[in-house]
């Protein structure tokens, strides 16, 4: 059994994961109290492998930004974290490895394995803080059980409250050891072609947040539903990778009294709620939260699924959403619901296929929020949209993109169609003149098919 090296008894390792920042970082505070700190990131094949190129590219850019903030000291290693973290801790003689707690099913198992490997060397994994305002598993109802519905959870969440942002340590004695971001463990960035990503890193995230606070928050309550406007904070990817903490945002929101501030708080609560659901029901990441709907008939993904994924369904707002996904690695939330409903209830393809497609392309791909969002649309999740609520892609487009600007931005074949007429090119004399595809299904018919099957399942 290898004991910590006496020459560096005051050294600890800070293992970065979904907390790629230096401010409001409780695990960093804990590590700094130990003395010297080695910053470490482990490229875990179990997470790297299933990730799409968009998430990989954004992660690499965020790590480079973090490395710059650390003065080039970030150590990047590749492999099984139980082996890598133990090896690095041995190498620098660290008695403790500090990390933010991970609430995901895989992350919890991985961290237990790392803790066990470190314990064999009489070292310790210290988990401090969480990527959420309130740690998953904390909020319980009056019976001591987890909430299954959002509204009562949100009330309990607000009553529970959350800590103030953690202070930045006065002086962190960072050290560097081993291979860094320019070493042999650093992978090349995937070629994203024409897909564009926003600037990565903590500084960029804070800049975007303050810009939104100043110019977007007051109108957020109604603007957030408009994909044709820049009405959202565009920070879901920064929250996913922990470039800033929701606690920081909530502290700033406390000083705002607008309806937009309250709506934004509610959206942060949804993020905590879905993480809490996954904590209590880890099976719901892949399986039906409400298993009674597992009996619905679904088609295997084929040509129709490919047309949906590539934005060639003939329904403009659906196609704009899927092309936005492939253009910028992000989709407006209202449009996410529209395209999800179309896949599940018009094309009759199971939600799990759509959830995987989203995770492949989204820069903010988050297991809890993504998969439970898909289950919401499919009618099988918590607070599920009733299965009989089928989004009409034409009326949704007209309501939330009334002048058609969103569609024209991402569907160039329809840029010649003026105003809201862009949502019904089949009613425009030259609607198909520039190669836009005709509708692959009849929405009214497929809606009836979906509802008939739902009636069968409900009995």
UniProtKB/TrEMBL annotation:
SUPFAM superfamilies: Cryptochrome/photolyase FAD-binding domain, Cryptochrome/photolyase, N-terminal domain. Residues 10-134 form the Photolyase/cryptochrome alpha/beta domain. InterPro entries: Crypto/Photolyase_FAD-like_sf, Crypto/Photolyase_N_sf, Cryptochr/Photolyase_FAD-bd, Cryptochrome/DNA_photolyase_1, DNA_photolyase_1_CS_C, DNA_photolyase_N, Rossmann-like_a/b/a_fold. PROSITE patterns: DNA_PHOTOLYASES_1_1, DNA_PHOTOLYASES_1_2, PHR_CRY_ALPHA_BETA. One of its GO terms (molecular function) is deoxyribodipyrimidine photo-lyase activity. It is an enzyme of class 4 (lyase). This is Deoxyribodipyrimidine photo-lyase. Gene3D superfamilies: 1.25.40.80, DNA Cyclobutane Dipyrimidine Photolyase, subunit A, domain 3, HUPs. The keyword Lyase applies. Belongs to the DNA photolyase family. Keywords: Chromophore, FAD, Flavoprotein, Lyase. Its cofactor is FAD. Its EC number is 4.1.99.3. The keyword Lyase applies.
């Amino acid at each position: 059994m290898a004991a910590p090296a006496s020459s560096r008894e005051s050294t600890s390792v800070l293992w970065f994961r979904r907390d790629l920042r230096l401010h409001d970082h409780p695990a960093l505070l804990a590590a700094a109290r130990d003395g010297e700190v080695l910053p470490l990131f482990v490229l875990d094949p179990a997470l790297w492998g299933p990730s799409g190129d968009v998430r990989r590219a954004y992660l690499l850019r965020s790590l480079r930004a973090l490395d710059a903030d650390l003065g080039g000291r970030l150590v990047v290693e590749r492999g099984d974290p139980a082996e890598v973290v133990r090896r690095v801790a041995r190498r620098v003689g660290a008695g403790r490895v500090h990390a933010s707690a991970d609430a995901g099913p895989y992350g919890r198992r991985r961290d237990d394995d790392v803790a066990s490997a470190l314990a064999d060397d009489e070292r310790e994994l210290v988990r401090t803080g969480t990527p959420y305002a309130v740690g998953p598993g904390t909020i319980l109802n009056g019976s001591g059980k987890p909430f299954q519905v959002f509204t009562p959870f949100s009330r309990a969440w607000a009553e529970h409250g959350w800590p103030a942002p953690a202070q930045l340590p006065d002086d962190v004695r960072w050290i560097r050891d081993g291979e860094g971001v320019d070493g042999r463990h650093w992978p090349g960035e995937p070629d994203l072609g024409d897909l564009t990503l926003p600037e990565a890193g903590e500084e960029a995230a804070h800049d975007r947040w303050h810009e939104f606070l100043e110019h977007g928050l007051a109108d957020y309550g109604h603007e957030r539903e408009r994909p044709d406007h820049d009405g959202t904070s565009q920070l879901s990817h920064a929250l996913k990778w922990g470039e800033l903490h929701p606690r920081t945002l909530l502290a700033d929101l406390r000083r705002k009294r607008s309806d937009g501030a309250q709506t934004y708080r509610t959206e942060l609560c949804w993020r905590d709620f879905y993480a809490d659901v996954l904590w209590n029901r880890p099976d719901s990441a892949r399986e039906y939260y409400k298993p009674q709907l597992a009996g619905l008939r679904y088609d295997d993904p084929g040509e129709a699924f490919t047309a949906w994924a590539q934005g060639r369904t003939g329904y403009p707002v659906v196609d704009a959403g899927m092309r936005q996904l492939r253009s910028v690695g992000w989709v407006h939330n209202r449009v996410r619901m529209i395209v999800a409903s179309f896949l599940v209830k018009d094309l009759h393809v199971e939600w799990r296929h759509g959830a995987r497609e989203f995770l492949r392309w989204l820069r903010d791909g988050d297991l809890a929020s993504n998969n439970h969002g898909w289950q919401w649309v499919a009618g099988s999740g918590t607070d599920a949209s009733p299965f009989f609520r089928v989004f009409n892609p034409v009326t949704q487009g007209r309501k939330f993109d009334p002048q058609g600007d969103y569609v024209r931005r991402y569907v160039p074949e329809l840029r010649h169609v003026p105003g809201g007429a862009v949502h019904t090119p089949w009613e425009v004399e030259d609607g198909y003149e520039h190669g836009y595809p005709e509708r692959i299904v009849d929405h009214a018919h497929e809606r009836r098919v979906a509802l008939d099957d739902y009636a069968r399942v409900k009995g």
